[in-house]
Design a protein that fits this description.
It holds the Pfam family DUF4249. The protein is mainly beta and 346 residues long. It has helices spanning 17-31, 220-227, 293-306; strands spanning 45-52, 60-64, 82-88, 94-104, 107-110, 122-128, 135-140, 145-149, 154-156, 167-172, 182-189, 195-199, 205-209, 231-235, 238-241, 250-252, 256-257, 262-263, 269-272, 282-291, 329-345. Strands 1, 2, 3, 4, 5, 6, 7, 9, 11, 16, 17, 20 and 21 form a 13-stranded mixed β-sheet that branches.
Amino acid sequence: MTPFFSFRQRLTPTAAPLARAVAAVLLLLVAKGCDLSGPDYEEQIVVSAILEVGEPLRAVTLSRTTALGGTSGATPPVTDASITISLLDASGAPEAEYAYAHIGGGRYVTDDSTSITLPGRTYAFRADVPGRPLITARTTTPEAVTLAEDVAPEVTYLQGFNGLGPSFRVRSGAAASGDQNVFLIGISADAIDDYEVYQRDDESFGLRRQFVEGRFGPTADAASFIDGIDCEPLGNGAYDCDFLPEDIAGGESPLLNEESYVRNGDGTLTVIVPWLAVSFFGPHTFTLNSLDPALVAFISTQSVQFNPTTISPGEIPNVTTNIENDSGLGVFGSFARTSVTTTIVP
């Protein structure tokens, strides 16, 4: 099985797993994803548009890149674009078109609240920004991911599927590309205990658990790690800690293909969440996301941009984008997902 993530890494919370992952890379696009400095710098439009299978059409965000060393703070929004997303038929002609309107801060929404994103269909994105080339992109949505067998309501720590971790079974259709489906799984500990800063000795401060009723503490390994967290007083009762327990309460796996899971004779996949990914006891939510090729390529960039361990700075590749004809940066992608909940007990 492909390794998951370690609780010793700083992890991305999973309340909105894909949105946060994509937002992190979009920040790189604005700041350093391309050659954004020097005399050859040209402003680019950055697209963030992600469809979720089985859900209404989601909001779209447009922003502008800024040159390195330029104005810091919020990215400049695009407020005057004309945006449409079209559902295409088998011939590539529009079957339905959805217009978007700006609601502030470069964020655009459609007033059609009844249209649901369909599985296994191609959608086309079009944004007309005054004075810029027409921005276009396409995504073919993954097939729906459905639950075939739920996770057990309670799973004893270090037991589960062959002792490997909590498991559940899903069904997912074949990828439109003909390749294996690619997944990203998110984990969230939903009721971790509260922590407070205390003074260890004359010079150091740390965190300790408060034992609030109805909240849950860490596993032994995670507790040992939390015991080593250092905090610095900032004055007025405020502290700056080098890590927080909530930073290890959730996260996301690397990109995983179907070979990372157990293929069953009935065509289902058994998804196993390794115990290495679980840092707390109590209720947890596990979310399996099936990604389209655009999101796979885009999120792959994240690992290179944030962890370029084997690449020299001058060799770090630009952020991968499916925006067509060099008309912009960013991503127009899609995903399908299903979630399960269980309680981890000692």
